[in-house]
Design a protein that fits this description.
The protein has nine helices and nine strands. By secondary structure, it is of the alpha+beta class. This is Serine hydrolase.
Length: about 270
């Protein structure tokens, strides 16, 4: 029995809240487990995985450098992050913006990176990595601006797969991206129930009624599976009124633990 069969049989799919999209596979076996995986939803901050890869592709191509100082938008974005509290900071190196974008999910940092990289480059990156439902056509937290922000579990899993297998970036930039993802501070979803010694390189996202997490799971030093879980249309009181906790957060944690167990053959 392989990873996909073990994950399907794990029971982690029972009583899932809301509307769920899942895409997961073992990076060696490559048989996917898909559940609503191509349904387009608002990706919240999980879209920052694509922005990270697109920015590092610009570094690869010589359009930017990790030391390039990038100006911050005058209008600081709402939502998560620290830069709205630092009005005296007018620019930062690209490497620091990428870290803020992922590690503390800073929306102002993300918008600065988008301005530096360009929406066309992000769209080209998505297309080259096989993303079919993904659109990032405006700055984050700018709901009045025209353009879509959408993706699906399968697309985000494809981005992570291309990253970890070396299809998206050269080795040194792949290592840089994985190091940034490994420092993610929100650990209440895919990594929450993993045993000691497990590794998780993830990027969660949340809005009212929305809980997501996408990541790579494996041993401490080697990703072995990609798992993307996007949950929306959550109507429970906590999910509808706050952007933390709730039953979907716990459900994603169970899926992460089940995926880790599915990497090893069943005992006996």
């Amino acid at each position: 029995m392989g990873f996909a069969e073990r994950l399907r049989a794990s029971g982690c799919w029972d009583d899932l809240p809301g509307r769920v999209g899942v895409a997961a596979w073992d990076l060696d076996e490559r048989e996917p487990v898909l559940l609503g995986a191509e349904r387009a939803v608002h990706p919240a901050s999980t879209i920052k995985v694509l922005v990270l890869v697109a920015a590092l592709r610009a570094v690869r191509d010589g359009a930017l450098d990790l030391d390039t100082r990038v100006p911050l938008p005058e209008r600081r974005a709402g939502g998560s992050g620290v830069l709205p509290e630092l009005p005296s900071v007018g620019e930062l190196p690209l490497a620091e913006l990428l870290a803020l974008m992922v590690v503390v999910s800073d929306n102002t940092a993300t918008n600065a990176v988008l301005d530096a990289v360009g929406f066309a480059a992000v769209a080209d990156c998505a297309d080259r990595l096989g993303c079919r439902a993904t659109r990032l056509e405006r700055r984050l937290m700018d709901e009045r601006a025209p353009g879509r922000v959408q993706s699906c579990a399968l697309d985000l899993a494809r981005v992570l797969d291309a990253l970890v297998t070396g299809a998206a970036l050269p080795p040194e930039l792949t290592r840089h991206a994985l190091a940034v993802l490994s420092r993610q501070q929100v650990r209440d979803r895919l990594p929450a129930l993993l045993p000691a010694g497990a590794g998780c390189w993830n990027k969660p996202g949340e809005l009212l009624g929305v809980r997501h997490d996408v990541g790579l799971i494996g041993t401490a030093d080697r990703p072995r599976a990609v798992v993307a879980v996007l949950v929306d249309e959550l109507a429970d009181e906590r999910s509808a009124t706050t952007t933390s906790g709730g039953p979907a957060t716990a459900a994603i944690a169970r899926i992460g633990a089940a995926a880790h167990r599915a990497l090893e053959p069943a005992n006996g």
